[in-house]
Design brief:
This protein has 423 residues and is an alpha/beta fold. It is built from 17 helices and 13 strands. The chain has a six-stranded mixed beta sheet with strand order 1-6-5-2-3-4, sandwiched between helices. It has a five-stranded mixed beta sheet with strand order 7-13-12-9-10, with no helix packed on it. Strands 8-11 form a two-stranded antiparallel ribbon. α9 packs across α10.
Amino acid sequence: MKEDGRIHHSPFIAQRFPSTMTIEEQITYLMKGAVDCIPADELPRKLERSKRTGVPLRVKAGFDPTAPDIHIGHTVLIRKMRHFQQLGHQVIFLIGDFTAMIGDPSGRSATRPPLTREQIIENAETYKKQIFKLLDPERTELRFNSEWFAKFSADDFIRLAAKATVAQLLERDDFKKRFESQTPISLHELLYPLSQGYDSVALEADVELGGTDQKFNLLMARQVQREYGVKEPQLIMTTPLLEGIDGVQKMSKSLGNYIGITESPGEIFGKVMSISDEMMWRYYELLTDLTPRELEDMKAACEKGARNPRDLKAELGRLIAADFHSEHEAQQASDEFDKTFRDRQMPSDIPAIERPAEPIKLVKLLAAEGFASSVADAQRLIAQGGVRVNGETVSDAKHEMGSTAGEVVIQAGRRRFLRVVFK
């Protein structure tokens, strides 16, 4: 990869599939898990032209570096970039270091606080390390939109602002709600969709990917491209917001229902195993590279009883863990999970602490070591039968330990263990 993020275009060679893959098969694969494809009739035309000319499509997705850590919900979009990349197209991972100083108003009921330049640089570096767990770094064009916006003059911004009307921008649901409720909308926020649209002009994008919450911005980019004379504006494709491991709400770190891509293989595998059988298929669709046909065959085998849902979920856990670690580590995580939960053996890598040999209530110890948020929370956990000491379920909230030297192994919930050595 060159220093400015540009790379030489790779030959138009399907990376995962044989060269005989038809356009229809490519469309089916690319549309797997997608919500919108606008205009739908442009996708086959663009793919056919690319195949005929040997020129890869330029597929862009933009990310504002507003958060340093990615969870697997964020990777739904990155994986769709990967699918285009597997089919030989040029993907462009755009870091919006300039637009991050504006702040994306998508889904916001108030003005987003702008980031400092230092925060942007730090978060962007973290993104660069994380995205290449799924994307091929040698075949990814990594760009920053400060490349062109830092050179914009006041005249340039005035010309850009003239590409849309205030009425059009206020059609956006976020802006409309804030306007009707008399919540302030800053002028710089109105420039965000236009700025994102100009990114597509600067990058000569044929396709832009984004979450469903970005649909307004993606459509605005098509208008901006037309206003700047682009003969064939980009096709837009949106991906859904992934539900968390609770199967109900959107995956979010604040809700605690997420799987972080920097988590250990054991944590990733264990969390996947906790999802419902129904949610398993949703994760298979959005978080793997399996084709729709492969998924259909898998579902049919499960319905006929030829495949066990538990085994399929374990296979999913290994696939996801291997994406962010290695196949060997993913298999180790699977084996450790079986050893602990199926064979009822203790894990081999239980963390250990030392404490003085003096009496302490179990509820206080659980709270002190973060296994419960408070003593009351620890009491509820015990009442629910969720705490074991040396393999035996504890039902007495007044249980004490540590009066003599020795060690005990505490298990809280399904996956948390602690070895306490009393001296």
